[in-house]
Amino acid sequence: MAINLQIESLTKSFGARVLFEGLSLTVEQGDRVGLIAANGTGKTTLLNIIAGREDYQSGQITLRKDIRVGYLEQKPAFAAGKTVMEACFESDNDMVRAIATYERAVKEGGIGLQEAIGRMEQLSAWDYEQRAKQILTQLHITDFDQRVEKLSGGQLKRVALANALIAEPDLLILDEPTNHLDTEMTEWLERYLAASKLSLLMVTHDRYFLDRVCNRIVEIDNLQTYTYRGNYSYFTEKRQERIELGNATAEKTRNLYRRELEWIRRTPSARTGKAKYRVDAFDELSKERRSAQKTQQVRLGIEASRIGGKIFEMVDVSKAYGEKVILKNFSYTFARGEKVGIVGENGVGKTTFIRMLLGHLQPDSGTIEVGETVRFGYYSQQGLEFDQTEKVIDVVRKISEDIPMADGSRLTASQFLQQFLFQPSQQHDFVAKLSGGEKQRLYLCTVLITNPNFLVLDEPTNDLDIQTLNVLEEYLASYTGCVIVVSHDRYFMDKIADHLFVMQGEGVVKDFNGDYSDYRQWKENLLITSQKPQKIAEQPKQEQPKTKLTFKEKREFEQIETELPALEAEKAYLETSMSSGEMTTDELIAAAERIRQLIEEIDEKTMRWLEMSELA
Q1: Which of the chain's ends, N or C, has fewer CB atoms near its CB within 10 Å?
Q2: pTM value?
Q3: Start and end of every ABC transporter domain (predicted)?
Q4: Per-residue model confidence as pLDDT tens digits over 400-455
Q5: 176 burial level (CB within 10 Å; 0-12, 13-18, 19+)
């Protein structure tokens, strides 16, 4: 296999803080590598170094000759005033450089023009703009003349993603590619990468994405690099085996440490003479023990504050912004200990829903009643602005000195921070020293230390590392209060939510009894059913209960069974046509709009068919 990227003995530090030391990594052709490490350990820094955007102290990075590299940054930014299409031509890739060279050569003339044409042919750069429009359209960006400063965070991410894909790189580097993407776009990206032949190096906390895309996982833990040939599920299994082996070794280290510590205390003169080697060995043993402590798994059992019989009730709640309906006559009563996930496309109104729940927004009509004992804990996707000169421990202590545990004991603020992976030495660092992900983790701690009994979490998984997500999931699994969570992280939703509020648009909210995977399977089954409705009609009628449909409803029921396959066929045809690369820009836009209409129509008719099938 050809080697696309070779990293040897790479070292990077900021002052006394070492991010990685002697790091080596190889990415071969066809490798799809997921890089896993805790927040603040230099994942983004490493990707920036590979992309040539940051320097390093020592080591060597070698890229294959003539390799094309694409890079999606975690927080992409474009110059204000640029249109979406102009932003695609601002990329630093071979194709854009070749186009710029060709345009200059056309103006100047001479022998350089022939060379520029040859380079354009070599890179297949003539249809760059058409490819850009095709990928943007598939990512639901169809207004190519829109100014980038008018785009939402999710739209900016999609434009940046299109930028990385247009040039058809040999090596694609992705930093948190699923952040701010809704589920539909995430699953599109999974399919796109699975069908491509490129090599991949990415950082993501999306565990289903890692599972479905990657064939190798590289973990950086305590400055050590561990490689696993397999997907995320394989990695978790083998990592657990490594941890269990490490725990056995750590226990031996602790026993030896205790014996050597006792010897040191009994022998004050040991630091001179022949016993010096034993003292040196003890110092090394101390380092091993501290390293082992860092990798210990956490166990949380927090006691949520008491919550009364009346918790939360919404009755006939409606909310709209102009013609856009968020909720329409929605009613629900929350039960003690209930954990609800909210899903829906970007822009459907998920954040508006929870802001009404919290009393930050008032409904247009209907009532929202909150029980007197309810104490909300709200984690906003906008985050929290910290005083950069404050110490980590002081940020939490000024909220609460401790938090009660389920066994009756109390966890101090310092112990609580340690459970969320802030080691004692780091707790006295200033907030300014924290990475973006570490600040989000600290924000999470400030919410949880208040000991709420009703947690409202809006995109809590963005910018958190997998280790923190595992801690949060364990916390929520044993949490006795109510939880409402908005998240595009499918793995997280499967672990946390008992049932889902599916926001379908036009004010419709479906209460789905199951986790996210159950919901996806249900939707897939609906499509299969809608494609073969005649089998339902062919069931022996004598075994069916007497119909409860009116004559008019029966005619509607039969008509839907005829219409659904035709709608699905039209949608499939349009999707195939869009992927062919043969459609004009206007045709692509029209096809994308028609597919959107078809999806809405199919969902609406399928729901109606299900309602009537229960009565048929």
Answers
A1: N
A2: 0.73
A3: 5-247, 312-530
A4: 998 887 777 888 999 999 999 999 989 999 999 998 889 999 999 999 999 999 99
A5: buried
